[in-house]
Amino acid sequence: MILPPIDPVIAFRVVLSTAVTDAVYVFFNAAVVARRRVAAASWSSAWYLLSAFAVISYTSNWAYVLFAAVGSWIGGYLSITALEYIAPARPKADA
Question: Is 15 among the domain residues?
Answer without folding.
Answer: yes
